[in-house]
Amino acid sequence: MSLRKFITNKTTAALAVLITAFANTSVFAQDAAAGAAAAPKVDMGEVYKSVIFYILVFLAVCLFIAIIGKAIKVYELSREAQGKPVGINWNRVHASLFALFLVIGLYGVYWEYTVHGSMLLPDAASEHGKKIDRMFNLTLIITTIVFIATHILLFGFSYIYKYSAKRKAYYYPHNNTIEKIWTIVPALVLTVLVLMGFLTWRSIFFKVEDPNNKPLQIEVTSEQFKWSIRYPGADGIVGKKNYKLTTATNTLGIDFKDVNSRDDEMADEMVLPVGKPVKLILTSKDVIHSFYMPHFRVQLNTVPGMRTVFEFTPTKTTAEMQQETNDPNFNYLFLCAKICGSGHYNMQKVVRVVSEAEYKTWIAEQKTYLNDDLRKQFNLPVAPAPVKSEADSAAKDSAAVKTNQMALNK
Amino acid sequence: MSTIALHDEHNHDHADHGHHKETLISKYIFSMDHKMIAKQFLITGIIMAVIAMGLSILFRIQLAWPDQNFPFLETFLGKWAEGGRIKPDFYLALVTIHGTIMVFFVLTAGLSGTFSNLLIPLQIGARDMASPFLNMLSYWFFFMACVIMMSSFFIQTGPASGGWTVYPPLSVVAKAMPGSGLGMTLWLISMVLFVASSLMGGINYVSTILNMRTKGMDLWKMPLPIWAFFLTAILGILSFPVLVAGVVLMVFDRSFGTSFYLSDIVMGTDILPNEGGSPILWQHLFWFLGHPEVYIVIMPALGISSEVISVNARKPIFGYHAMVYSLIGITVLSFIVWGHHMFVTGMNPLLGGVFMITTLIIAVPSAVKTFNYLATLWRGNIRFTPAMLFAIGLVSFFISGGLTGIFLGNASLDINLHDTYFVVAHFHLVMGSAAIFGMLAGVYHWFPRMFGRMMNAKLGYLHFWLTFIAAYLVFFPLHFLGLDGVPRRYYAFTEFEFMKKWLTVNVFVTWAAIMAALAQVAFLFNFFYSIFKGKVAPQNPWEANTLEWTAPVEHLHGNWPGEIPTVYRWPYDYSKPGHDADFIPQTVPFSQTMSSNLPHDFEGNEEAEKIQQDWELANPVTENKR
């Protein structure tokens, strides 16, 4: 479209009229605004919320781009009319933009790694977590090197080998040696990563139990949209469950016919003794949820009809972590990481890692799931004796429970 | 083969102004011409992409400003955004439908459907697909799938909202969420239709490529896009039926009371009667398709970019055979890696270890492809057409997103990254952005072939730079949210103290996403304007070697008037030394390019080699041949 045609074009003329009208109204609007501005300040909040405002802004931008486009076209046409070489060498423009993108991009990556990189989770607070962190750092170093090197090549080549009519590309269809090298090198690097990953993975999921340091069993049950925690009580074993036994009073469907269930305790938060292995038994009542404890590098789905197990050892108490992160409000927590419905975004519980002594005092205060109502339901004698005396020694405590159990067994 | 004969006759009829009149309906709607079907797939794909992008903007707004009201949302969404705030259930519906549309309707049907249909017959030299009727059905099944999926926005309980992977029991038990009611039923119906469409397409592509190549077009002379479409179709044919099987079992569970995926479920205190099934079964069936699916998405994009990069770097693709073998490697390996989506589902940890090994092996062919792209650019003579820009962008995304895959494929690292924003960032770069860029590269490159007109290059430049920058601004920061342990599919970050520091990042990401979305206006305008008003395309606008550019610009049913051209050489003879032009189309016999023939070209044909030697003796080497 030549310039003259552009001016005489009807649609352009119509557009011009519209623009003039628009400009006029906006001038009037400005006048009005100026008048108003003389008095109190105009509240622009409503304006920023209205869709029309943004549409107008967008149209203005489009108009601006169209004008620039036309200006470029006029420039190029005038060059052509004068018989001069083409106005803008777009190949050079893009080559330079790629070079610029490379430089700014590399700085952006550096900025991200340092600024956002410093906002991440603190170092792992569990034994296996440290291995995962090491593995992560190694992978990060390798991938960052490859990431930067390949991008330098990609955008560097784009810059250097931009089109020139004087040059012909180098006909180089293949080179088997080079191809072998860059098949084998990644394969070797990946073999290292696979081996390390495989060993880490095995060390996390295939643990040999130390008879002297038996893990603390804790059962976590998920449902829409909350978690229930069950501690094993003095016998150290979480008792059986059967979903068919679920009632309003027995929300987890605990089977109290199983002796191991009777001393199981409920808890509002998860309290863990530091340095002691913990065996999480994960189950779900309704849909799949995911038990995720980011600070400990622990995640496993909770699946209805299935028991999943994750064993780990916390290594830092909450207090130590508060110091380390310089945040007195810091708390470990676990949350749901698998889409489970409208409340998915708020399914959390606090985790407290404490010293062994603190743990013992805390656990002694927890109530059992079994109460008088449930005793009646399961035809168990309603025990008159207190389930827990305020015994301060653990031995005494467990002895009390034992007698209690015997009473129940009758 | 009978179809070919039929079309041949048909063409002769055309010569004497045949009696076969095309009506509006037979030409534009129930068309059996592969070029028209390709356009139908493309335009439907673009419309679906715009819808899915709009959905993503809606939930990005919610993520950026979780405690503000946007009255216009209520205007559009009614009760789903009462008071101008999106509800949690609807938020999940948005992410679900965004994912489903993008993965299946845009990047599978929109990408494979468009370019397989357009390019297979044109690049291998066939008059049409093996079965044009099946091809037409394939589009219409796809169209119905789209309509049904969209219709779920107009029902009382809203669309499916259990995530695009629709894990049971969430998606099966209607009480679990409103979206698991009628919306989920529509999702399943839509998916069955979609798979049917995809199978009809795939069978057609495979049989066309195997049976209908023109004279001289042996498998090792096929352009790389054809190889990619061929292997993609095989992947689809082998994996999609498994999804249908899974979907049918899910329909049974939902509607007829079976327990394939359900067992031991208590909703509140309501004990469901289902017993003996396993939700994990669905995950196995789903990901047996789902993982090949991501290669179904990316392989055509890789094929397209191979072609575009070679043409515009004016240089043969480096390691043609290696490119094909790596595609074959990816195809085979993609069937044995599905378990890496399930490392933390409680699957036997031993299996986790095995799947980790197979998953990381798949990085090798991907690395080979990347290095071959780089080697192709090296000492090229690069023309930055819009298509080339997008192809380079694809390589960049493929690297960035592929490398994070090494983290996620490692089972022990996946423990802490699973279902976090790290995953979101990873797959949006490697299969989202990269595949979309492959698709856009294809659209810019073959638009002249499709519509006989050129797109505006400058709008293409603007489109590329805005989209490329915005895509990185959106997805790069998201990695860090994931590394901080922020799970995906969270409606708001307001309930957790540690997530609050990411709220400002979310605002930034949302603005970048809006910028990316607005940049697409440049494309949409360019695309639709150029269909009608673009500059008329020359015969071979990019000076490419492949067959499609020998067909006349005006479309005709049967592609070539008269005989189909014969192919003599591979498709990547660019800048061959000794030849005056920097490209030699596949249809040029070696006898016409004596000055540039290499001994390798004759594949051991002694007679031809002798003729060449004699010619070289008769014409001593000039400076030209260096």
UniProtKB/TrEMBL annotation, chain A:
The keyword Transport applies. Residues 1-29 form the signal peptide. It is found in: Cell membrane; Membrane. Residues 213-365 form the Cytochrome oxidase subunit II copper A binding domain. Its main location: membrane. Its EC number is 7.1.1.9. Residues 113-208 form the Cytochrome oxidase subunit II transmembrane region profile domain. SUPFAM superfamilies: Cupredoxins, Cytochrome c oxidase subunit II-like, transmembrane region. InterPro entries: CcO_II, CcO_II-like_C, Cupredoxin, Cyt_c_oxidase_su2_TM_dom, Cyt_c_oxidase_su2_TM_sf. GO terms for molecular function: copper ion binding; cytochrome-c oxidase activity. It is an enzyme of class 7 (translocase). Binds a copper A center. It is a multi-pass membrane protein. Keywords: Copper, Electron transport, Membrane, Metal-binding, Respiratory chain, Signal, Translocase, Transmembrane, Transmembrane helix, Transport. The chain crosses the membrane at residues 53-72, 93-111, 138-161, 181-201. It catalyses: 4 Fe(II)-[cytochrome c] + O2 + 8 H(+)(in) = 4 Fe(III)-[cytochrome c] + 2 H2O + 4 H(+)(out). GO terms for biological process: ATP synthesis coupled electron transport. Residues 389-410 are annotated as: Disordered. Subunits I and II form the functional core of the enzyme complex. Electrons originating in cytochrome c are transferred via heme a and Cu(A) to the binuclear center formed by heme a3 and Cu(B). PANTHER family: CYTOCHROME C OXIDASE SUBUNIT 2, CYTOCHROME C OXIDASE, SUBUNIT II. This is Cytochrome c oxidase subunit 2.
TrEMBL record, chain B:
GO terms for cellular component: membrane. It holds the Pfam family COX1. It is found in: Membrane. Residues 24-550 form the Cytochrome oxidase subunit I profile domain. It is a multi-pass membrane protein. Its main location: membrane. The chain crosses the membrane at residues 41-63, 90-112, 133-155, 186-206, 226-252, 285-305, 317-338, 350-375, 387-409, 421-447, 459-482, 502-529. Keywords: Electron transport, Heme, Iron, Membrane, Metal-binding, Respiratory chain, Transmembrane, Transmembrane helix, Transport. One of its GO terms (molecular function) is cytochrome-c oxidase activity. GO terms for biological process: aerobic respiration; electron transport coupled proton transport; respiratory electron transport chain. The keyword Disulfide bond does not apply. Signal peptide: none annotated. Residues 605-626 are annotated as: Disordered. Belongs to the heme-copper respiratory oxidase family. This is Cytochrome c oxidase subunit 1. It comes from Pedobacter suwonensis.
